[in-house]
Amino acid sequence: MNNAGPDTSLSRKPLADLRLGVFLPSSHQPTAPETPLAPLTGLNTKAQVIGVSNVNGTRNSIVVNDYGNGKAIYVGTSIGLAYENLGPSSGVNKLIYGVLNMAKVQPYAEVDSTTPGYVEVRLLRSGGDNLIFVINHSHSDQVVRVRVNPAVLNMGNGTVKDLVTGLSVGMSSNTIQLKLRGRQVFVGLVGA
After folding, report:
1. What 3 state SS string does 29-61 have?
2. What digits encode the pLDDT tens for the residues 11-37?
3. Which residue ranges form the domains of the chain, and what is each CATH number?
């Protein structure tokens, strides 16, 4: 194998020449010792390539394969970093949501905001307490509506205590509405 750069060709017979005991040189560290292949057990050749890199359109970047009763999805790129660097209008969010939908992963919260794509929501549990973090990553003020999936956390109607200001924010049908300044973070204690 030539260690001068990445191989951008697509093998028409994947894994055909690989056997237990064959050594592969490391392409990212040419001076590293060669590493033997692990045993190839449970190999499933039904994997489908559903995405390729844009280097020259031949590098498998997203592969789906049957695994147990479900699917395993391998994404060979940093799609989260791409989303952060390129923003929501880049289309990367469609890729992320597509992979999540394919894996039947449901979001734990739905977010509507003035400028979509720049608000992050995190839920944390600490003992019996539930915390909600709403982060405005944009430099602009945002009106944000967050609806938490009741299957994840059933907040119902009540209040969320803003742990920064001490004020309470009303909640209805698992939904809170906030006005956040640019780069503001809301930290709330649910049901306080």
Report:
1. CCCCCCEECCCCCCCCCCCEEEEECCCCCCCEE
2. 333 333 433 343 333 233 333 344 443
3. 23-102 (no CATH), 109-190 (2.60.40.1180)
